[in-house]
Amino acid sequence: xxxxxxxxxxxxxxxxxxxxxxxxxxxxxxxxxxxxxxxxxxxxxxxxxxxxxxxxxxxxxxxxxxxxxxxxxxxxxxxxxxxxxxxxxxxxxxxxxxxxxxxxxxxxxxxxxxxxxxxxxxxxxxxxxxxxxxxxxxxxxxxxxxxxxxxxxxxxxxxxxxxxxxxxxxxxxxxxxxxxxxxxxxxxxxxxxxxxxxxxxxxxxxxxxxxxxxxxxxxxxxxxxxxxxxxxxxxxxxxxxxxxxxxxxxxxxxxxxxxxxxxxxxxxxxxxxxxxxxxxxxxxxxxxxxxxxxxxxxxxxxxxxxxxxxxxxxxxxxxxxxxxxxxxxxxxxxxxxxxxxxxxxxxxxxxxxxxxxxxxxxxxxxxxxxxxxxxxxxxxxxxxxxxxxxxxxxxxxxxxxxxxxxxxxxxxxxxxxxxxxxxxxxxxxxxxxxxxxxxxxxxxxxxxxxxxxxxxxxxxxxxxxxxxxxxxxxxxxxxxxxxxxxxxxxxxxxxxxxxxxxxxxxxxxxxxxxxxxxxxxxxx
Length: 524
Fold this sequence. Notes:
By secondary structure, the protein is mainly alpha-helical. 44% of the residues lie in helices and 9% in strands. The protein has a three-stranded antiparallel sheet with strand order 1-2-3, with no helix packed on it. Strands 6-8-7 form a three-stranded antiparallel sheet.
């Protein structure tokens, strides 16, 4: 009997229908449809569909969207785009957002009862962005998200029948921006990731890691910076479980100030938790808060590595003639040594290499290293000049495939030039155990310049043949590029330059066809 009743009510449909608006929330869509049909409550739509719309059941709505879709006249896909799903990964602690990203459920107020009243009046719909706890202000107007109208004091309830909950005759005109530029910029950055909006934030200098990262990384970063009471190895997401709107405003102010104008904003943020600022005689005296901050950041180093790197940069500036190692131990170096050597972790950052690649560079003596004693043991430092020289060489690296295309060679032909010591790579698996082949562009250019210098212009009427065609002609008889260049280097063959220099780099050169034939037949 109950199933028949649900089936009958589910067959009903609304008189006035409207498709969902982009970036609209599910609750906001149902409120807008209720207003369009003159219903006093959003829950009336649920009654038509045989669905109980309460705060408790909304989070489990994914299985009932089909019923709602039939009543409101929307497709299942349109309804799903408005709804947050419990993650298939289990434990009901995560939700899948409409764009497919998974985040912990504690980052959401759902359904949210905070709105931007200017947006409600101008756009006529409730944005899904307002469900995020980190969004305290409207990214467009800069207005505070409120749970009641500032003019008529009418509260915002989720089960209402009008987009704007204000009393009739309310004259709300907007407050303008109510937050610092840094907070508004952070709201816009969240909007870019959550709604794929296109706010230009170049002038605010956010760190590249969060600009290029996903929404979850940004929320974790904000969560960590907004804590203000770090407890060692605590869960970075846990602090949002009991987050209250009235406390989030100050938290966003702290987090946004640390992230704009990177790294100077972050350094000012660290000044606030380091009591050593302005200490007499340059003493480094850490506030008790710093200990918890440092321990928490170490435990989250994998997720928030750029914050840890920024902390090291900050401490190295503040410690003057001391160096903060990766383990956080200040290692005292003499002034003379500081001018000559740089810690390994700083060298890695300057070169843009990982730990394994750095170790290979040291072990194979590309970098001149020296151990220094710390209270944790020995710390490897490297000579500044060797870092600079290798960095310059590294900037000229060209890969094997790219170089082969430029020269007009196959990968095997390029390999044969290296085995014959004609054109040697800087790094290769055979030379120094490097996982990839890298050539120094300067070495390649010098080799080509030598060939051009020794190449002569052919006399009128002399028949010449390109190097590639020469190899193709006699390849079945064993001729290779390495054999050609060995013959050229020993004077057995004369190298000529062609009149046009528009082909692949080696196609600029040619050989005397008669001399080539005579030489190769003599070898045979």
